[in-house]
Amino acid sequence: MSRTALRICPLCEATCGLTLTIEGTKVTGARGDREDVFSKGFICPKGASFGAVDGDPDRLRTPLVRKDGELREATWEEAFDAVAAGIRPVVERYGANSVGVVLGNPNVHTMAGALYPPVLIAGLGTRSLFTASTVDQMPKHVSSGLLFGDAGAIPVPDLDRTDHLLLIGANPLESNGSLCTAADFPGKLKALKARGGTLTVIDPRRTRTAKLADRHIPVRPGADALLLAAMTHVLFDESLVDLGELTPHVEGIAELAEAVREFTPEAVADACDVEPALIRTLARELAAAPTAAVYGRIGSCTVPYGTLASWLVDVLNILTGNLDRPGGALFPQAATGRTPRPAGPGHGFQLARWHSRVSRHPEAKGELPLSALAEEIDTATDEGEPIRALVAVAANPVLSAPDGDRLDKALDALDFMVSVDPYLNETSRHADVVLPPPPPSQSPHHDFAFNALAVRNQVRYTRPAVPLEPGRMAETEILARLTLAATGMHGADPRAVDDLVVGQTLGKAVGDPHSPVHGRDPRELAEQLTGDTGPERRLDMMLRLGPYGDGFGARPHGLSLARLLAAPHGIDLGPLRPRLPQPLKTRSGRIELLPQPIVDDLPRLREGMRRRTDGLVLVGRRHLRSNNSWMHNVPALTGGTNRCTLHIHPEDAERLGVRDGAPVRVKGAGGEVTAPAEVTDSVRRGVVSLPHGWGHDRPGTRLNHAAADPGVNVNQLLDGSLLDPLSGNAVLNGVPVDVAAVPAP
Ligand SMILES: Nc1nc2c(c(=O)[nH]1)N[C@H]1C(S)=C(S)[C@@H](COP(=O)(O)OP(=O)(O)OC[C@H]3O[C@@H](n4cnc5c(=O)[nH]c(N)nc54)[C@H](O)[C@@H]3O)O[C@H]1N2
Ligand SMILES: Nc1nc2c(c(=O)[nH]1)N[C@H]1C(S)=C(S)[C@@H](COP(=O)(O)OP(=O)(O)OC[C@H]3O[C@@H](n4cnc5c(=O)[nH]c(N)nc54)[C@H](O)[C@@H]3O)O[C@H]1N2
Ligand code: SF4
Ligand SMILES: [Mo]
Hints:
Elements lengths: L1 E7 L8 E7 L2 E7 L12 H4 L1 H5 L9 E4 L2 E4 L2 H19 L4 E5 L7 H5 L1 H8 L4 E3 L6 H11 L7 E2 L6 E5 L3 H4 L9 H10 L3 E5 L5 H5 L2 E3 L6 H14 L12 E2 L1 H7 L5 H8 L3 H13 L4 E4 L1 H4 L4 H14 L9 E2 L42 H6 L10 E5 L3 H4 L3 H9 L3 E5 L12 E3 L20 E4 L15 H12 L8 H16 L11 H7 L5 H12 L15 H5 L5 E5 L15 E2 L3 H15 L5 E4 L26 E3 L1 H7 L6 E6 L2 E9 L7 E3 L14 H5 L14 E2 L4 E2 L4 E7 L4
Parallel strand pairs: 6-7, 6-15, 9-10, 9-13, 10-11, 12-20, 15-16, 16-17, 21-25, 22-24
Antiparallel strand pairs: 1-2, 2-3, 4-5, 4-17, 8-14, 18-19, 21-28, 22-25, 23-24, 23-28, 26-27
């Protein structure tokens, strides 16, 4: 007997609604849920393989605890005892900062990852926090923090209504979109063209997305900030600046005009390898379009001028009046976001409130660069204690961060490490305790993060499609127990963590004159919360306090968990709407167009105008059937074109004597790797491309399928020293490398 159950797909940012077929407790099929209010039936090959991802036999079923040097199966009780015994002495002897926390990407795809790590970090009181954000989108947070006063206020291109999309360093036909949650991104690009709109793609590779475009500009990697600065220059130079409705909300226009004066199309053309006339055309087209959106992603962030490029993306949206208007780039409003306060000056955004111990990198958004994790463990200084214990949740930095070999050794030297991870992989193999979460079919799902980045306001929640297997523990409970064990409350009831958060949140809300529950009794409100579990009660609380919430009765038709459960395919909350000036939290209460940290970084960009590398540079790429480092163990998703090969342009290949399919050696500052060449003109001359997340050939892992075709770790080519200085983001693209054919034996 089979049945079906709904489950939001957690495998990428598109958040498609799936209809799972379930036999017994096994997921045997997945198709798109046509009634899903957001995804309307869209699915990609990863979602269609949900059952294989979910049922991977290599997923760990019980905790592992290291005994006599070896990881062995253990009970949950033994595992949490070991966590408390491993972490507490380190905190007590060396202080809170000697415990590091590493949070990986899947935390934004689980409810547990949204709800518990903030409590863990606050409870530990550690400043040693590292996340996947600093190998990804930290530059965007910093630019939003500086422009809008809120690092979380990220404008999203209005894909369904725009007339002109300028897409920079993003390949949504493979990635399905990022910092822009849209199910069926490919379909939305085709619809844009079908309604007469235009798509321009800036990417050193002729990607599947670039092939769809009306115009593809194969920029020199890393030079986007120069190109965008020159477009900004042209807008001023040709009097194309038109703020429209934004005028009263923006300051610093004249100063900005002055700051970009030197960045003429002629001055940047050589560094970008884009003709001056074409740069002018790009600026004019942007200004002339009835509506337009500029959108940048990985290729604009993980580069030396990541924050400047991210800032210029929104500068262009602002100067053309496209920020915060339909068809432009708007701020979504998620159902679990805070109830909007009246507009007015805020606290502003601060950078560099503290620094990393070894290389003195400034913090950004409370985080230190993931690139600096290894040195924070393996290097002693007079400044304080190195990291001696590590909590890794859904993170595989040995493959995803620069210089995995150094990190490998550093992790081995720790006094204690715990990984919350379903796999024994390149990183978790170093742990003393591995706590495996259940597969996604056994977990509830709500997109706290991505609903705040979605092209349409909507809200959905799916309960576990399959009950927890005997011996399993929900990831929410794992993280609650881990938090208690790490903060000196080992053995307490995990519900205490949820009660603490509920008490604090409601306590604050009743004291806030703008809250719908101002002046009420927090205990009485807590008693009204519904839900079967602590996390459900917290979701109920956030929905009811949120911008569409019922305000615990104050707005009777508003949202609550009960209302959401009654709408299994989700609730549509309408298209994105203009929201300014409310989201602004700058000290001025306005958009601060030319913030001081940007002014201070512009001289570096001016120098960049005069520099150009003549050697080969490396960029990354993603494949539709892959996801970072953890999906190479699923046979249905590997093979074919999803391989770890070095893309190289035919002319470069010929010059270097590299033959298609033959091994080539790639050398960078951090090391060298050998991979098969794939000669293709989809990369521009002077650029080679390797995908990331490969290199599954280390001993002591349990990834049987992945180990059979391990690929190489592209991040071994990096030594971790190249960062975007404002955000601490790793430079992963536009990295100089040497490439040589491997002589036949
Ligand atoms: N060269 C290069 N490097 C890159 C990038 C690039 O473009 N080029 N991209 C960067 C980007 S954007 C990112 S986000 C990072 C990602 O870097 P990471 O976050 O370190 O890596 P992931 O492969 O996403 O997965 C992390 C871990 O989560 C585990 N996991 C999977 N599902 C769950 C779950 O439900 N719960 C828990 N607890 N664990 C789970 C996996 O087994 C894996 O060990 O990589 C970065 N690295
Ligand atoms: N299938 C699949 N989907 C994914 C993931 C995955 O691994 N696989 N990962 C998920 C994650 S964690 C993220 S963050 C997103 C990322 O989502 P995207 O940013 O859309 O993904 P990428 O494919 O890395 O696209 C980056 C593009 O930037 C280009 N590029 C490199 N350097 C430069 C440069 O200097 N300038 C310009 N203009 N372009 C450059 C690359 O050639 C590449 O095509 O994808 C998510 N979705
Ligand atoms: S596009 Fe992303 S969310 Fe949708 S089915 Fe594919 S992996 Fe899942
Ligand atoms: Mo990412």
